[in-house]
Amino acid sequence: MSLEKSDMPQYNYSDLIGAGPEMQHVFYMLSQVSITQSTVLIMGETGTGKELIARAIHNASPRRNKLMVKVNCATLPPNLIESELFGHERGSFTGALERRIGKFELANHSTLFLDEIGELPPDLQVKLLRAIQEKEIERIGGKHTIKTDVRIIAATNRNLQKEVAESRFRSDLFYRLNVFPIVLPPLRERKEDIPLLAAHFIDRFARTAGKKNVRLSSMVMKQLNAYNWPGNVRELEHVLERSILLMQGNIIREIHLSSPLSKAENKSKADEDYSRTLAEVEREYILGVLDKCRGKVFGPGGAAEILGLHVSTLNHRIRKLGIHKEHKYFIKVPQH
What we know:
With 336 residues, the protein is α/β, with parallel strands linked by helices. Helix content is 43%, strand content 12%. The longest helix is centred in the C-terminal third of the chain and has 24 residues, at 269-292. Keywords: ATP-binding, DNA-binding, Nucleotide-binding, Transcription, Transcription regulation.
């Protein structure tokens, strides 16, 4: 039995944006697991909002009156992760000048969010498994076990089943974490949410920048919908923040990338692809409009009017994108 979209209840969370079926399914999953004590494993690409989901679960749970405690397993060196998780006693190793309370103890009667769990070293995977199973931990250098009541929410951008198959992640820990899996869709698979997300970010950043009645031009919205967003929601957020800071007037007429990306000698391949792809999307859209207008730039029915741009702005974009007029059509300037 499957629910039709119209039959599914509509779920909403104040910090989460999504009206499409993919995110409504995620919201449904949240509504089912939040009120329980079950361990949750959140999986999704970088920038999809895994920490927001973890916080939404915690804030709707019986543990919401205590702060959620977070550990990013990817940012700590291996020799410090154990102390971060379980704490240590004074003098237990060189540099341990005083007792340290670990995150498990800090999260007692609350939620412990283990971000980037796939980066946890193998020896600590064993200790984490024991802490989850036995509900007790032992500080480094400690002589006694400490009982803990902690709800675990873990997140990863890795395929943990593949990591298990290739012996990089313990199968017993995976199954212990994978009690209630939630998979977040990438932004390219939920493009119907882009206008909602864009409106949310524009409202936030415009207020911060002291700008009023900010909106997107039709051309920019077309670009946002056409782009593949490898960095997902976080990338969209940062692009709109930059664009608002750099815009003139109250209409965002072009997407702004960080200027160093297009000029730095050592930019990464990902940055190159990102910059090039946006330019291609914009160029293709402008060419399509110009073709529809039979090459007419200004005046009634011209490309500038259709795109919602000033003629000077459109001419600037045409030159920047390497488009020139030949008879009544526009083609790319040959590269020599």
